[in-house]
Amino acid sequence: MKKFILPYIWIVLVCAMVIPYRASSQDNIVEPKDKITLTLQQSMIVQRSNAQITITPGESLAQKQSREKLEQERIAASTTRTVIARERPVEPVVTKSWSITDLRGLYQSAAAKFGIDWKLIEAVHQVETGKSTDTCIRSYAGATGPMQFLPSTFRHYANEGSDICNVHDSVYAAANLLASSGADTGDIDSALFSYNHSRSYVELVKSIMNSI
Asked: Does the predicted model carry a pTM greater than 0.70?
């Protein structure tokens, strides 16, 4: 009987020793709850990183603001140019067409005002610009307009308008200059030399004047 009982006693003793040991070892193992918490936190970090990449696919916030500002300035500039174009339309400039009859009427009116021969004015006009009208043609020396005045000289003798490029204003200024230089007393040579300091010029104008 003893032979059969002893083995069972040994088995009971061994089990009694092993079970408490396994139970005490489990006290040092991290509970599953802690592992789950750590895993969830790591997952949240990864998700935030992914969210940042999605928000900024190609440009930063500063770049986006700069691009939008440039676009607004471009639109504003385009709008401003359009408004100016409407407020200041380009209008064609209409000039009078002068016939020889019209011109001679002008020469005679200016000559009568200053007491000189109208043919002298026509001859000067012919030599200076070939009787050009309403033109801002300019010489190498800076003489401008139908009667080829230097701007400072024109301002001094202008009396029927202040446009150096206008034939009416220029003819009256020329008549004033010629009269002031001796033409009103018959001194044609002095008047022409004052207009252009060249003896050949004086002779050329006189020859044309005498042919009219």
From this structure: no
